[in-house]
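Fold this sequence, please.
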Amino acid sequence: MSNVPLQPGQQQQVYGSQAPPQQVYPPQQAYPPQQAYPPQQAYPPQDAYAQQNAGAPCAPAAVGPPPQQVMGGGAPMGGDPTLLCGSSQKLVIKEKVNKAEAAASAVGCCWNQQNRYEVFDEMTGQKVLDAKEHSGFCCRMLCKPYHSLTLNLHDPRTGNHVMTVDRPYKCHTICPSVLNCCRQEAAVFMGSDVKNQAALLGYTKQPSCAGCFTPTVGVHLTDQEIPFSYIEGPKCCFGGCSEMCCDQPFPISRQRGKNEDVGLIKKEKPENASQALKEIMTDADLFTMTFGDPSLTPQQKTVLLSSVLLLDYMFFETGKPWHCSPFSKSCSITCCNCYACGMLIPCKLVLGGKERHDH
């Protein structure tokens, strides 16, 4: 028999001719087990893995904010879809090229397609939103870019429809923005119901006279009459071929005057030949929006994002900067657009024309 020292309270057991196992009972370990109880984790568990391992010791806490779990409806935990872009300091808005529209445009045909956009966080490169236009065919073909439409915003991680931008039809650019029927506007709603005023996050609308000779829109929260910020564009002339060589800045300010204390929207010029060709052949544009005010809420940032989409339709969806007609045997080049009270007046250079026959 092996002379195994007995622990206090332990009785010696006889196993016949075999030596007892070399262990003590109970096992020599601290009791209760050396772990926090209950397990130190957020409740409810932040993900499925945490639920399956609720009794296991916790992993070291991650540095930074906890991951946002997607709940029902495509919103982050807490049910607020504005958080999808609310933590970003700079957003990149890319309009996707429609190949059918580009091909039709190359041969001189008008085939306006529904716009699509992708929204990225510039710091992380992560896509935060997808936007897809829904509009009537006839209204789009005859009235673009002033047609009525909705832009459905989707969470790219789940594909769920989380917000909607609603833009009603307004009079064409030849109408001064004095009457309400001529003042461009767009509203953004939670979910898909644009009739539910309780879901309204905010709206963007031109003020009376639309800034006179400076493109101006006011950005409002919910149904507030006083804007929390103003977006003002380049004075008098912008767009056309000037987009090829110059950025188009739109400062965001608490008060009128372009002091840029809230942020800056910029329509980016092409950086290379590929982007320049896309700019010439299509209406696909690239915007950036930088937030300079750290006090901006996710709701305010979301409404400002909808303002960028409205600005694209108002000023940069009027067509290519050039047009050639085989019937008149002429080509026209839009050098820039002049702005007055909401009206866009293109400054064009016309080359060629029909030959005159004197008899």
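The CA atoms of residues 210 and 341 lie 5 Å apart. The chain has six helices and 16 strands.
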